[in-house]
Each structure stands twice: as structure tokens, then as C-alpha cells.
Design brief:
The complex is a heterodimer.
Chain A: H1 3-41, H2 44-48, H3 62-68, H4 71-74, H5 78-109, H6 115-127, H7 130-144, H8 150-175, H9 178-186, H10 191-220, H11 223-228, H12 237-240, H13 252-286
Chain B: H1 8-34, H2 54-60, H3 63-96, H4 101-109, H5 116-126, H6 133-140, H7 154-183, H8 187-194, H9 199-224, H10 229-236, H11 248-258, H12 262-293
Helix pairs in contact in B: 3-7, 5-7, 5-10, 7-9, 8-9, 9-12, 11-12
The chains are: A mainly alpha, B mainly alpha.
Chain lengths: 288, 298
């Protein structure tokens, strides 16, 4: 065999190996999700079957119909949870964005003493594990009487999201050249106008993705919500998921269906942000 | 104070300060104080009894607590290292792909959208010894004929939790490393090739140093929400069987809410908080160091 042939074979093998590796990796990433979707469409008998039924025989949307048709049929008040989740996530995201924009702008555009340590301090508040924070919050909220209210959770989530939004938005404002705002000011804009008409529109995609990121964190949060909510007044979807587990049995099909309902908004939103997310985090942290 | 105008950056940072102080700092100070009391939720006035360091002394000699502590550190060490290696492999695989990179990148981010509690539930379902897909597949393929008790045996449960944790968070590393790979200039790699480096050498001495800061960003981000493992463990095993997978955070939740011993739980949570701050500070410093090392490019 001459050298060329050896080289060609080696190349083909490498290429095939690469493709197989890629395929395996993607399969491992996707399969759990697909399995959940599939299980939500099958009757419970098929899920529990022994020996297992691999190819679904009866596919139906029963689980979803039952879930959205009220407490009587579905067993748990999904609609209430959905509403609570939506109200809490959206409100806390909007507030966190406003605060984050102010903070991020300050970090990106002004020089002041102790900037790095303030920034690090903001980040450190985020390291406090949710469950550790929930203990004193539970106590304070109980005193103030805001346990099991939307307000209580919104407040907690704003605080949870502010460090991240500040970090992300700081990164995005840094990407907007300083000269642009200065040029606008020379042309007679006030500082506020320069911000609102020039810098804000340029940083908008980044700010939007920071918002979606904050939304996802609130939407998915469990540790705090599980302690600070009690009833349908304020329970969110992640906490509601536990309603499907009884002492010894779990309604797997219903749980899968609720999981799909939870994941769909998150999926759609993440697709929209994915590009800006990485560039924002890296520019904030690397160029620092 | 009429006529006094604060500097604009103070004004801009004020809302962030207020919120963080109200929701994080003040409650934490409160919990620091209550960790010095025998506070129980069932007896509210016990918060006024001061017992000094007795809670902490008790924890020092509490074997269960230190086992949970050790297990948490073990879980984090395993998870973060494996995630980094797998994330690197995944990023390299995707970067090498010539077609469909956009789709691959999107699929790669898929697990990031799952809330940790969903991940926990999903893997609890798949690792179920009776109806789970893992056992079903193993049995159908004839690899084993009994049901493997994934979540019931202590060691297997730890592995299952680790799997869930890795599945959900490898994407974070992969994405940042991929961002690093794509931002990398081509010339040094070509120069290395011309100088006769083997693929391994050019990876080790050219690519890796370049990608490292990106890895540290991912590490920092992961260390910020490291306690997300609580959700996964809570759902999958709830610290069971018989406390074999108890980690710090499930132990804190149990002590505080089931046993209603808030004072003791606050003492525990302070140790947990110090642990996470330690992790974050380590990675922040590494990040700064790595950034300096390649300072020329930036």
C-alpha cells in the first residue's frame, strides 16, 4: 500500500469517527426530552407495561386535555399555576431589567472608586444558595404577611436576577462605542436623550436577551418558590409539578405533559436569545 | 440636603443596591443572628435567647453534617470536572462540523432550557427501577435480567444524580468553549502546523491556553448557580435512601422546615454560603489570571 492510500484511509476513518461521535452526543442530548414528549402522549397502561412497549400504539392528547380542563378532571389546577408563573416571571423580569439597565449603564460608562469590588459584590449575592436564602426570607415574609403572595416572589426574583442583568447589560453597553453618544451630545442632545435615542436602540438586542435570561431563571426557579408559596394564590409551575407525586405513586403521564407545557415557552425564548447570550457574557467578563 | 446632587453613577446603582440589600443582605444578617439562637419556628420567642456558638459547636461534632458536606464537595468536584471535559469534547466536535453548525449549536443548548426540577424529574423517570427507560433498554438488549435499583442503592443513586447534573450543565461549558474556539485567530494554529506540531501539541499549547478564559467564565457562571443541584437531588431521591445522597442543601431544608430547627439550619446554611463564595472567588481569580496571560489579544 502506498502512502497516499494509507493517508486516504486514515482520513476517512477520522471523518467517520467524528460523525459518529457527533451523532452520539446529539442523541444523548435529545433523547431524554423526546422520551418525555412521547410519554406524555401515551396512556398510563403503556408507560407501566412490562415487558416494555417500545413503539407507541395509542397516541392521544388526553393528558393535555385533562390538564387544561380544570381541577375536576386533571387533578391539579394547572391553569392557576400557569397564570401565577406568567405574572410573577414577567413582572420580575421587567423590574429586574430596569434596575439592571441603570446598573449596567453605570458600570459601562462611569469610572468610580471600587468599581470592581462593587461588581464582585453584586455577583457574590448571587452565590447564596436559594435554599439558604429561603430560611430568613421565610421568616421575614411571615412577619410581613407576604408569604404566598405574588409580591413576595416577585421581590425575591428581582433580587435574584439583578446581578445577572447588570452583568449582561454592562457587557452590551460596552459594545456600543462611547463616541456615538458623545457625538449625539455635541449635536445638542441631553445625556438622557443620547442614551434613549442612540445607545439604547443599539444595545436593545442584548437587553432583550438579558430579559429572556431573567425570565427563564424566574420561570424555572424552584428552591425559593417551594418554601414561599402555599396555595393556588401563588404556586408556580415548578412547584405545581410536585402535585403529581402522591405518597407512593406518581402520575408519570400527567407529569410529562406538564413538563412539556413548562418547557415550550422556555424553548422558544432560548432560541431567540442564543446568539446574544454568549457574546454578552463573554464581553462582560473577558474584556472586563 | 437641598441642592446636594449625588453623582450620576450613585443614582444609577442605587436601585440595585436597595433591592439587593432588602432581599439578600438584610435577611442574611438576620439569619446570621439567628444562627446564634436556638430558634424554632414552633416557638417564635426562642429567637431572643442568645446561645453564642453552640449551634456551630454542635455542627462541628455532627457526623451527618460533615458527611453531607463532603458529599456536596465531591459531587461538585466530579460534576464540574466532568462537565468541563465533556463540554470541551462537545465543543470540538461541533466546531469541526462543516455543515449544519447552527442547528448543532441550537441542539447543544437544549438541556440549558430545562429547569433543574424538570431535569430531576426526567431522570427520576428514566432511572426508575421498574418502568424507567434505562432498565427497560438494558433488559430488552439482554444485558441484564434483573431491575437495577438505580435510585435505591446509595452509590448508584449518587451516579444517577451526577448523570442528571452533567446532562443539564455540560451545555454551559460547551457553549463558552465553542465561543472561544470561534473567536480564535487562525494564524497561530497554522504557524504551529508549519513548525511541525502534532495535533495534540497544537491543541495543548495553542488552542487550550486561548480557550481557557472562556472555560473560567463558564466555571464562574456555574459556580454562581451551583445550588441548582438542590432541585435535582430533592426530586430524584430527596436525600434518600436513608440519607445516602443527602447533600448540604437538602439537609438544610429538612432541618429548617421538617424539624423546624431554624437556628441550627441557619448555622448550616452559613457554612454552605461560605462554601459557594469560596468556589466563586477561586474561579474569579483564575479568570483574572487567565485573562492576563492572553492579555495581548484583548
Amino acid at each position: 500500500m502506498d502512502e497516499n492510500a494509507v493517508h486516504r484511509i486514515k482520513r476517512t476513518v477520522l471523518k467517520a469517527g467524528h460523525l459518529i461521535g457527533l451523532f452520539l452526543a446529539m442523541a444523548i442530548i435529545c433523547l431524554p426530552g423526546l422520551w418525555i414528549v412521547l410519554s406524555s402522549l401515551r396512556p398510563t397502561v403503556e408507560i407501566m407495561a412490562k415487558p416494555p412497549v417500545w413503539i407507541p400504539r395509542n397516541v392521544s392528547l388526553d393528558a393535555y386535555v385533562a390538564m387544561f380542563s380544570g381541577v375536576g378532571q386533571g387533578g391539579i389546577p394547572v391553569l392557576d399555576y400557569f397564570r401565577n408563573s406568567l405574572i410573577i416571571s414577567v413582572t420580575s423580569t421587567v423590574i429586574a431589567l430596569c434596575i439592571g439597565m441603570a446598573g449596567g449603564y453605570a458600570f459601562a460608562r462611569y469610572r468610580f472608586r471600587g468599581k470592581t469590588s462593587i461588581f464582585l459584590g453584586f455577583m457574590l449575592t448571587r452565590t447564596v444558595p436559594g435554599i439558604a436564602l429561603s430560611l430568613p426570607l421565610f421568616f421575614v415574609y411571615a412577619r410581613l404577611g407576604i408569604i404566598d403572595t405574588h409580591f413576595g416572589l416577585i421581590l425575591a426574583y428581582v433580587a435574584l436576577n439583578v446581578p445577572f442583568t447588570v452583568w449582561l447589560i454592562d457587557g452590551f453597553f460596552r459594545q456600543v462605542p462611547r463616541d456615538l453618544a458623545e457625538a449625539a451630545q455635541i449635536d445638542g442632545c441631553t445625556r438622557w436623550q443620547a442614551f434613549w435615542r442612540v445607545e439604547f436602540p443599539l444595545a436593545r438586542p442584548g437587553i432583550a436577551s438579558a430579559g429572556i435570561f431573567a425570565f427563564l431563571i424566574s420561570w424555572n426557579e424552584f428552591a425559593l418558590a417551594s418554601q414561599l408559596t402555599r396555595s393556588t394564590n401563588s404556586k408556580t409551575l415548578p412547584v405545581g409539578l410536585l402535585d403529581y407525586t402522591a405518597e407512593f405513586t406518581i402520575d408519570w403521564r400527567g407529569m410529562c405533559a406538564l413538563a412539556v407545557v413548562m418547557i415550550i415557552p422556555a424553548l422558544t425564548l432560548t432560541f431567540i436569545v442564543q446568539k446574544h447570550l454568549v457574546s454578552g457574557l463573554t464581553s462582560g467578563a473577558v474584556k472586563g | 440636603m437641598r441642592g446636594w446632587k449625588p453623582a450620576p453613577h450613585v443614582l444609577l446603582l442605587l436601585p440595585a443596591f436597595i433591592v439587593l440589600a432588602a432581599v439578600v443582605i438584610v435577611p442574611l444578617l438576620l439569619s446570621l443572628y439567628s444562627s446564634f439562637t436556638p430558634f424554632r419556628l414552633t416557638r417564635p420567642d426562642s429567637i431572643y435567647t442568645f446561645i453564642g456558638f453552640r449551634n456551630y459547636e454542635r455542627l462541628l461534632s455532627d457526623w451527618d453534617f460533615w458527611v453531607a458536606f463532603g458529599r456536596t464537595v465531591l459531587l461538585l468536584t466530579f460534576a464540574l470536572n466532568l462537565e468541563m471535559v465533556l463540554g470541551l469534547v462537545l465543543a470540538l466536535l461541533v466546531e469541526k462540523a462543516t455543515r449544519g453548525q447552527r442547528i448543532l449549536r441550537t441542539i447543544m443548548m437544549f438541556p440549558m432550557m430545562f429547569s433543574p426540577i424538570l431535569v430531576g424529574f426526567q431522570f427520576k423517570f428514566m432511572f426508575n427501577d421498574n418502568i424507567g427507560v434505562v432498565n427497560n433498554a438494558l433488559q430488552s438488549l439482554g444485558l441484564t435480567n434483573q431491575a437495577i435499583p438505580w435510585l435505591i442503592d446509595g452509590r448508584l443513586a449518587f451516579i444517577s444524580i451526577l448523570t442528571a447534573e452533567i446532562w443539564s450543565s455540560t451545555a454551559v461549558f460547551a457553549i463558552f468553549i465553542l465561543a472561544g474556539l470561534m473567536a480564535m485567530p487562525r494564524e497561530p494554529l497554522e504557524a504551529a502546523k508549519v513548525d511541525g506540531c502534532t495535533p495534540w501539541q497544537s491543541f495543548r499549547y495553542v488552542t487550550w491556553p486561548f480557550v481557557m478564559p472562556f472555560t473560567y467564565i463558564a466555571m464562574t457562571i456555574r459556580s454562581l448557580d451551583i445550588a441548582r443541584a438542590y432541585d435535582i437531588v430533592k426530586i430524584m431521591t430527596d436525600g434518600g435512601p436513608a440519607g445516602r445522597t443527602e447533600i448540604l442543601w437538602t439537609l438544610i431544608a429538612r432541618t429548617a422546615y421538617s424539624d423546624a430547627r431554624m437556628g441550627l439550619a441557619n448555622a448550616m446554611s452559613y457554612i454552605a454560603i461560605l462554601l459557594s463564595i469560596l468556589f466563586t472567588v477561586i474561579f474569579f481569580r483564575q479568570l483574572a489570571k487567565a485573562r492576563q496571560q492572553i492579555g495581548a489579544e484583548w
